[in-house]
Amino acid sequence: MLALVHTTDQKSRNLILIGFMGTGKTTIGKRVASSLGFRFVDTDARITKAAGKPITKIFEEDGEEAFRALETKILQACAEQSDQVISTGGGIVTQPKNREILARAGFVIWLKASPETIYERIRHNRSRPLLKTTDPQATIRDLLAERSDLYDASKNLAVTTDGLTLEETCFGVTESARVALGMI
To answer: What is the pLDDT of residue 9?
Structure first.
Protein backbone atom coordinates (compact mmCIF):
# COMPACT_ATOMS: atom_id res chain seq x y z
CA MET A 1 0.00 0.00 0.00
CA LEU A 2 1.29 3.44 -0.89
CA ALA A 3 1.54 6.24 1.61
CA LEU A 4 1.25 9.81 0.49
CA VAL A 5 4.27 11.99 1.03
CA HIS A 6 3.38 15.41 2.35
CA THR A 7 5.75 17.94 0.92
CA THR A 8 6.28 20.49 3.63
CA ASP A 9 9.44 22.15 4.89
CA GLN A 10 10.18 18.95 6.76
CA LYS A 11 9.94 16.57 3.80
CA SER A 12 11.30 17.15 0.31
CA ARG A 13 9.53 16.06 -2.87
CA ASN A 14 12.07 13.48 -3.95
CA LEU A 15 12.05 9.85 -4.90
CA ILE A 16 14.92 7.97 -3.24
CA LEU A 17 15.99 4.52 -4.41
CA ILE A 18 17.67 2.27 -1.86
CA GLY A 19 18.74 -1.33 -2.09
CA PHE A 20 21.68 -3.63 -2.50
CA MET A 21 24.21 -3.15 -5.28
CA GLY A 22 23.02 -4.56 -8.57
CA THR A 23 19.32 -4.02 -7.96
CA GLY A 24 19.13 -1.34 -10.67
CA LYS A 25 19.02 1.87 -8.66
CA THR A 26 21.06 3.91 -11.14
CA THR A 27 19.62 2.47 -14.35
CA ILE A 28 16.04 2.64 -13.11
CA GLY A 29 16.62 6.00 -11.44
CA LYS A 30 17.73 7.69 -14.66
CA ARG A 31 14.69 6.47 -16.55
CA VAL A 32 12.24 7.30 -13.78
CA ALA A 33 13.71 10.80 -13.38
CA SER A 34 13.17 11.41 -17.09
CA SER A 35 9.57 10.16 -16.86
CA LEU A 36 8.82 12.36 -13.84
CA GLY A 37 10.62 15.43 -15.17
CA PHE A 38 12.95 15.31 -12.13
CA ARG A 39 16.73 15.66 -11.91
CA PHE A 40 18.65 12.43 -11.49
CA VAL A 41 21.20 12.35 -8.67
CA ASP A 42 23.56 9.46 -7.99
CA THR A 43 25.11 9.73 -4.53
CA ASP A 44 28.01 7.47 -5.51
CA ALA A 45 28.85 9.73 -8.48
CA ARG A 46 28.74 12.77 -6.20
CA ILE A 47 31.00 11.03 -3.69
CA THR A 48 33.49 10.19 -6.44
CA LYS A 49 33.48 13.79 -7.63
CA ALA A 50 33.85 15.24 -4.13
CA ALA A 51 36.71 12.88 -3.24
CA GLY A 52 38.44 13.23 -6.59
CA LYS A 53 38.85 9.48 -6.84
CA PRO A 54 36.80 6.34 -7.44
CA ILE A 55 34.99 4.63 -4.58
CA THR A 56 37.39 1.68 -4.73
CA LYS A 57 40.28 4.08 -4.06
CA ILE A 58 38.40 5.76 -1.20
CA PHE A 59 37.94 2.33 0.42
CA GLU A 60 41.57 1.33 -0.22
CA GLU A 61 43.23 4.61 0.80
CA ASP A 62 40.88 6.11 3.37
CA GLY A 63 38.78 3.19 4.60
CA GLU A 64 35.08 2.48 4.78
CA GLU A 65 34.55 4.87 7.70
CA ALA A 66 35.79 7.85 5.64
CA PHE A 67 33.62 6.74 2.75
CA ARG A 68 30.52 6.51 4.98
CA ALA A 69 31.16 9.99 6.43
CA LEU A 70 31.36 11.48 2.94
CA GLU A 71 28.26 9.52 1.92
CA THR A 72 26.30 11.07 4.80
CA LYS A 73 27.46 14.57 3.86
CA ILE A 74 26.39 14.04 0.23
CA LEU A 75 23.02 12.55 1.23
CA GLN A 76 22.33 15.52 3.50
CA ALA A 77 23.07 17.94 0.66
CA CYS A 78 20.77 15.98 -1.67
CA ALA A 79 17.98 15.96 0.91
CA GLU A 80 17.96 19.74 0.98
CA GLN A 81 16.84 19.84 -2.67
CA SER A 82 13.56 18.79 -4.24
CA ASP A 83 12.19 17.26 -7.46
CA GLN A 84 14.94 14.67 -7.74
CA VAL A 85 15.29 10.94 -8.14
CA ILE A 86 18.18 10.02 -5.85
CA SER A 87 20.02 6.76 -6.37
CA THR A 88 21.92 5.76 -3.24
CA GLY A 89 24.76 3.38 -2.53
CA GLY A 90 23.86 -0.08 -1.28
CA GLY A 91 25.21 0.50 2.23
CA ILE A 92 23.65 3.90 2.85
CA VAL A 93 21.16 2.43 5.34
CA THR A 94 23.93 1.07 7.57
CA GLN A 95 24.41 4.48 9.18
CA PRO A 96 21.71 5.65 11.65
CA LYS A 97 22.14 9.29 10.56
CA ASN A 98 21.44 8.30 6.95
CA ARG A 99 18.23 6.55 7.93
CA GLU A 100 17.11 9.78 9.65
CA ILE A 101 17.92 11.80 6.52
CA LEU A 102 16.09 9.32 4.27
CA ALA A 103 12.99 9.56 6.46
CA ARG A 104 12.60 13.26 5.66
CA ALA A 105 14.16 13.39 2.18
CA GLY A 106 11.15 12.08 0.26
CA PHE A 107 9.47 8.85 -0.83
CA VAL A 108 11.84 5.88 -0.41
CA ILE A 109 11.57 2.80 -2.62
CA TRP A 110 13.60 -0.29 -1.77
CA LEU A 111 14.58 -2.13 -4.95
CA LYS A 112 14.93 -5.77 -3.97
CA ALA A 113 16.45 -8.76 -5.73
CA SER A 114 17.53 -12.24 -4.72
CA PRO A 115 21.21 -12.94 -4.03
CA GLU A 116 21.32 -15.07 -7.19
CA THR A 117 19.93 -12.27 -9.36
CA ILE A 118 22.32 -9.75 -7.83
CA TYR A 119 25.30 -12.01 -8.42
CA GLU A 120 24.35 -12.55 -12.07
CA ARG A 121 24.01 -8.79 -12.58
CA ILE A 122 27.31 -7.78 -11.00
CA ARG A 123 29.63 -10.77 -11.30
CA HIS A 124 31.73 -9.18 -14.07
CA ASN A 125 31.97 -5.78 -12.37
CA ARG A 126 35.39 -5.38 -10.74
CA SER A 127 34.61 -2.00 -9.15
CA ARG A 128 32.62 -3.34 -6.18
CA PRO A 129 35.01 -3.08 -3.21
CA LEU A 130 32.86 -5.10 -0.82
CA LEU A 131 32.80 -8.04 -3.23
CA LYS A 132 36.54 -8.46 -3.56
CA THR A 133 36.36 -11.69 -1.57
CA THR A 134 37.05 -15.34 -2.25
CA ASP A 135 33.30 -16.10 -2.32
CA PRO A 136 31.33 -13.09 -3.62
CA GLN A 137 28.04 -15.01 -3.58
CA ALA A 138 28.41 -15.71 0.14
CA THR A 139 29.33 -12.07 0.70
CA ILE A 140 26.17 -10.97 -1.09
CA ARG A 141 24.02 -13.34 1.00
CA ASP A 142 25.69 -12.20 4.24
CA LEU A 143 25.44 -8.48 3.47
CA LEU A 144 21.82 -8.82 2.36
CA ALA A 145 21.00 -10.63 5.59
CA GLU A 146 22.69 -7.85 7.61
CA ARG A 147 20.97 -5.04 5.71
CA SER A 148 17.48 -6.36 4.94
CA ASP A 149 15.92 -5.12 8.17
CA LEU A 150 17.56 -1.71 7.66
CA TYR A 151 16.23 -1.44 4.10
CA ASP A 152 12.82 -2.52 5.31
CA ALA A 153 12.76 0.04 8.12
CA SER A 154 13.86 2.83 5.74
CA LYS A 155 11.44 2.21 2.88
CA ASN A 156 7.98 3.50 2.09
CA LEU A 157 7.55 0.84 -0.60
CA ALA A 158 9.47 -2.26 -1.72
CA VAL A 159 9.66 -3.42 -5.34
CA THR A 160 11.08 -6.87 -6.04
CA THR A 161 12.82 -6.76 -9.42
CA ASP A 162 13.42 -10.50 -9.85
CA GLY A 163 11.62 -11.64 -12.99
CA LEU A 164 10.67 -8.12 -14.09
CA THR A 165 11.98 -6.46 -17.20
CA LEU A 166 13.63 -3.08 -16.92
CA GLU A 167 10.57 -1.49 -18.53
CA GLU A 168 8.18 -3.17 -16.09
CA THR A 169 10.24 -2.07 -13.11
CA CYS A 170 10.55 1.50 -14.36
CA PHE A 171 6.82 1.72 -15.03
CA GLY A 172 5.94 0.43 -11.57
CA VAL A 173 8.39 2.73 -9.81
CA THR A 174 7.29 5.75 -11.86
CA GLU A 175 3.60 5.23 -11.24
CA SER A 176 4.16 4.55 -7.53
CA ALA A 177 6.15 7.79 -7.30
CA ARG A 178 3.44 9.76 -9.10
CA VAL A 179 0.84 8.58 -6.59
CA ALA A 180 3.06 8.97 -3.51
CA LEU A 181 4.31 12.42 -4.48
CA GLY A 182 0.84 13.68 -5.39
CA MET A 183 1.63 14.11 -9.07
CA ILE A 184 -1.64 12.63 -10.36
So the answer is: 45
